[in-house]
Amino acid sequence: MTDKTSNKMWGGRFAAGPDAIMEAINASIGFDQRMAAQDIAGSRAHAAMLAATGVITDSDADAIREGLLTVLSEIENGNFQFSTALEDIHMNVEARLKEIIGEPAGRLHTGRSRNDQVATDFKLWVRDQFDAAEKGLLALIGALVDQAEAGADWVMPGFTHLQTAQPVTWGHHMMAYVEMFGRDLSRVRDARKRMNESPLGSAALAGTSFPIDREMTAEALGFDRPTANSLDAVSDRDFALEFLSTASICAMHLSRFAEELVIWSSAQFRFVTLSDRFSTGSSIMPQKKNPDAAELIRAKVGRIFGANTALMMVMKGLPLAYSKDMQEDKEQVFDAADNWMLALAAMEGMVKDMTGNRESLAAAAGSGFSTATDLADWMVRVLKVPFRDAHHVTGALVAMAEGRGVDLPDLTLEDMKSVHEGITEDIFSVLGVENSVNSRMSYGGTAPAQVRAQVARWKEILG
Ligand code: ARG
To answer: What does the pLDDT read at residue 279?
Structure first.
């Protein structure tokens, strides 16, 4: 006789129930209840297929379907009693189904195991998150394109080493992030396509002797096809890792932009004004307006990449096929997904609301000898001086200006000629920042016309 407290699902083999600590370490219901809808969808598809292939009767399948719908509505309405003794969402749902419909519930698990069940549920959940990320990225890209279009010809300093390098346009800077998030978008789409194979019917690891139709369940659940190897299907978590690595790269991009917004919104830069809606105040310093949303977005990459690392470590030593280690996949992915979606939405909101301060940007664009390269290029183009020599002459002029505490356009023609005889009045035409950016017409360059061409290309992509 088995002890009453032994498990309903495998009590036949067990004389006693688990220790409380065993139950605590083993149970995943505390978090995998987030996959309830996916679990029920998977079970409905499986039951319908079992009936279609004659493995169970139509009346059992009907009872199962109705019962599952009841369970789903109980969960959705918060009337479901989750039990740790029942370990996970799969057994919680099945046990409740048994209470509702009785014996037919016991036929649902035919030709299936929790190993293919959890792989299927989790894939469905992650797939939804890829779709949410796609939406979030498209919205963010749209907001950046709008900013780029509005300020296609606003001049600002471009930096290398965070030192003034050459003038660029606001639109060009915004479109740089559009490219980054565009690559994230393509990674999302690519990974979603690759992961869209159904593990259902792989059973515990070896497949099943029942005449199941895996094409049918795959199609019912929106998968492109069934997975081709049952051992792989139940032990694969690449889809979760691709989700996390895609999220990590995107979070890194979000973090870089967030960092720029933190710098740009400071009193020292004043490049942007963030809206009140996406800022916070200080409880002690009345003047403060803090870019907290940007700072938190900057931090999210830490926890998202942490999740990626954690799951990599969980998976790296596992022999085929399923091991319980894999239950540790979900919390990492859930947390990363929640925070990725939140960071995308917060960034979109901030970008939509922020104001680029055109005057401050333009003032900063002209300082720091930002047009020194234009001066050197002019000498190469007009005076046919080799670039290395022009670089040297320009360096001497920058040193002269710096010594006097002025900018390059403030030097006189005589000053210029004292360093290089051939320089003419014409040089002053290239020292202005507007001329500088307008001249950078190479494909992908900072000229407003190039920026507008990229804006138009992206608008077409976004539709
Ligand atoms: N809760 C488990 C998980 O999340 C479900 C699969 C259990 N399979 C098993 N053979 N014990 O991975």
So the answer is: 87
> Distance from the CA of 249 to the center of ligand 1, in angstroms?
29
H-helix or E-strand containing 288?
A: none
Residue nearest to atom 2 of ligand 1 (CA): 327
Read off the tokens for 324.
């319980």
Mind listing the pLDDT tens digit for each residue in 374-414?
A: 999 999 999 999 999 999 999 999 999 999 999 899 999 99
Mutate which of 82, 109, 118, 325 for ligand 1? The one with the most ligand atoms within 8 Å of its CB, which is 118
Tell me the DSSP string of 382-408.
HH---HHHHHHHHHHHHHHHHHHT--G
| 97 vs 100: CA distance, rounded Å | 5
* Ligand 1 within 6 A of CB of 114: yes
Residue nearest to atom 3 of ligand 1 (CA): 327
What's the CA gap between 377 and 164, in Å, rounded?
18
Of 73, 282, 367, 429, which is the active-site residue?
282
Q: Computed over its alpha carbons, how large is the radius of gyration of the chain? A: 31
326 lines ligand 1 (CB under 6 A): yes
Note the maximum CA span of the chain. Answer: 107
Q: Please give the structure tokens belonging to residue 443.
A: 């494909």
120 lines ligand 1 (CB under 6 A): no
Rounded CA separation 105/292 (Å): 51
Predicted confidence at residue 15, as pLDDT, reads: 84
Q: How far apart are CA 404 and CA 396, in angstroms?
A: 13
Residue 59 a catalytic site member: no
Are 191 and 243 within 8 A, CB to CB?
yes
Residue 290 DSSP code: B
- Residue 248, both tokens: 């990590």
pTM, rounded to two decimals: 0.94
Distance 134 CA to ligand 1 centre (A): 29
Tokens of 44: 């409905």
